[in-house]
Amino acid sequence: MNAGGWPLRAPAPPGSSRPQRRSHGRAPPLRAAAPGRAEQVEARRGRGSVPAGPMEALSQRCPLPAAQGCPRPGRGTVLLVMTLSLLMYPVLRSLALQMHAAVTGSYISGTHSIAFINCLNEQIAKDIARGIMDKRLAAYVNILPKSSALYFWKGELEESTEILLLVKTRTSKIDELSNYIRSIHPFEIPEVISLPIDQGNPLYLKWIEENVPRD
């Protein structure tokens, strides 16, 4: 024991190493943190010891091509689309109006027309009107009384009397009606003109539709 009564530590035998005291002036060295599970797997995978997953193996075997931007349409394509749109507009509009009329039962402006046909006399007018009705080219034909007419023919002013026919029919029948009149009319250039019916009595317009077959 020493003077204070504390037991003294026996001296270390020769050749043995005594633990050294830590220096108060330095911090003890830090131990490196053990790598986590993910880092160990990545390290082993880098050395080839851990196989890659099925999707990773597939991506390694079949690498995806680099993303490419969408090709921009050329001027020719744009012009073609615009041209087709303009050409299809009347057809699409007609279909839309027909669907609307079928659903609502309303009349579509211009579906029916009135045609004007001039005739030399009353007998010719009756014959032409009868032929029109026999061919179901109209639902109704008015034969107006004789009237006076002035017109130019081959550079000369002419005056005559004539009978006028008013023909109510479908607008789609006007071309067929005109061809028929030209084939039987005694005039070299017969008058066949038409005006579309905008609106009218729905029942009367429906009656015309029922009595003139569709094309």
Automatic annotation (TrEMBL):
Disordered: annotated segments: 1-55
A biological-process GO annotation: response to metal ion
SUPFAM superfamilies for the chain: GlnB-like
Gene Ontology terms, MF aspect: copper ion binding
Biased composition (Low complexity): 26-38
InterPro entries: Ion_tolerance_CutA (IPR004323), N-reg_PII-like_a/b (IPR011322), N-reg_PII/ATP_PRibTrfase_C (IPR015867)
Pfam families in alphabetical order: CutA1
Subunit structure: Homotrimer.
Family membership: Belongs to the CutA family.
Protein name: Protein CutA
Lineage start: Eukaryota, Metazoa, Chordata, Craniata, Vertebrata
